[in-house]
Automatic annotation (TrEMBL):
UniProt keyword list: ATP-binding, Nucleotide-binding, Transport
Coiled-coil ranges (or none): none
GO cellular component, one term: plasma membrane
UniProt xrefs under SUPFAM superfamilies: P-loop containing nucleoside triphosphate hydrolases
Gene3D superfamilies to which the protein is assigned, alphabetical: P-loop containing nucleotide triphosphate hydrolases (3.40.50.300)
Name of this chain's protein: Amino acid/amide ABC transporter ATP-binding protein 1 (HAAT family)
Organism: Rhodovulum steppense
Domain ABC transporter: 2-250
Pfam families in alphabetical order: ABC_tran, BCA_ABC_TP_C
PANTHER family associated with the record: CONSERVED COMPONENT OF ABC TRANSPORTER FOR NATURAL AMINO ACIDS, CONSERVED COMPONENT OF ABC TRANSPORTER FOR NATURAL AMINO ACIDS-RELATED
SMART domains: AAA (SM00382)
Length: 250
């Protein structure tokens, strides 16, 4: 699905990503781990078009997508989740979901989906889609809650839900578990697995919780100091001496 070849991202003289090459296989839930400052988020941001690369190449299903802006990638089904923006916190959970196709993909897709001049029907279709998403994520009871009132974990579920309002192919999740309690982390994990199995989503997941990574991800890619250090199954990775050293060395 995604191939990253010899990617560099420099900030001044600092090489945050220093010649990383990774592949994310179609249908996989690929884990990305590594010590703080390893360059994981920077790699995500380059793939997702948030930051331009210094050099290197990113392809999606063989097509060169290097440096394409986020909205173009969105149309191709490549999504990186973002925190619920402050200005949407007073809107309800359902309304936040209904914003996604209009807010992120613009007029063209909107019209293609619903035809012109059928505003009421569009609203109804969007609301129905939003309710289906909330049901899938088992947070339908939160539909009318203001997004700002959600817990950290519920917000993460809403972020995941936003990827379901469109036809996502590959979704990048940066630290899904940060600040989330165990129960909600399991709910998030279940949602990821179901999206993968039932809807064919490919995932690339950055997460520090090794239980979570071990349960969900195959393969797991380890980054350190901007480079790919190892790749393999979670249990193999954790026995790898270079990996152990990278974690202990920081
Ligand atoms: P990770 O997500 O693996 O913890 P990051 O990709 O966030 O690591 O950061 C990798 C390194 O790049 C860090 O040392 C960080 O300080 C640096 N860095 C990240 N973004 C910037 C930036 N915009 N300007 C300068 N340095 C940055
Ligand atoms: Mg990070």
């Amino acid at each position: 699905m995604i191939r990253v070849e010899n990617l560099h991202k420099h900030f001044g003289g600092f090489h945050a990503v220093d010649g990383a090459s990774i592949e994310i296989a179609t249908g996989s839930i690929t884990g990305l781990i590594g010590p703080n400052g390893a360059g994981k988020s920077t790699l995500f941001n380059v793939i997702a078009g948030v930051l331009p690369p210094t050099s290197g190449k990113v392809t999606m299903a063989g097509e060169d997508i290097t440096g394409l802006p986020p909205h173009d990638l969105f149309h191709k089904g490549l999504l990186r989740t973002f925190q619920i923006a402050h200005e949407f916190s007073s809107m309800t959970v359902r309304e936040n979901l209904m914003m996604v196709p209009a807010g992120q993909s613009g007029e063209t897709l909107w019209n293609a989906w619903f035809g012109r001049g059928r505003v009421a029907d569009e609203e109804k279709a969007l609301a129905a889609k939003a309710d289906e998403v909330l049901d899938f994520l088992t947070i339908d009871h939160l539909a009318d809650e203001r997004a700002g009132n959600l817990s950290g974990g519920q917000k993460k579920l809403l972020e995941l839900g936003r990827t379901m309002m469109v036809d996502a192919k590959v979704v990048f999740l940066d630290e899904v578990g940060a600040g989330v309690n165990r129960t909600l982390l399991n709910t998030i994990g279940d949602a990821i697995v179901r999206l993968n199995r039932e809807r064919g989503y490919t995932f690339c997941v950055i997460e520090h919780d090794m239980d979570f990574i071990g349960r969900l991800c195959d393969p797991v890619i380890v980054m350190a100091e901007g480079k790919v250090l190892a790749q393999g199954k979670a249990d193999e990775i954790m026995q790898n001496e270079a990996v152990i050293e990278a974690y202990l060395g920081t």
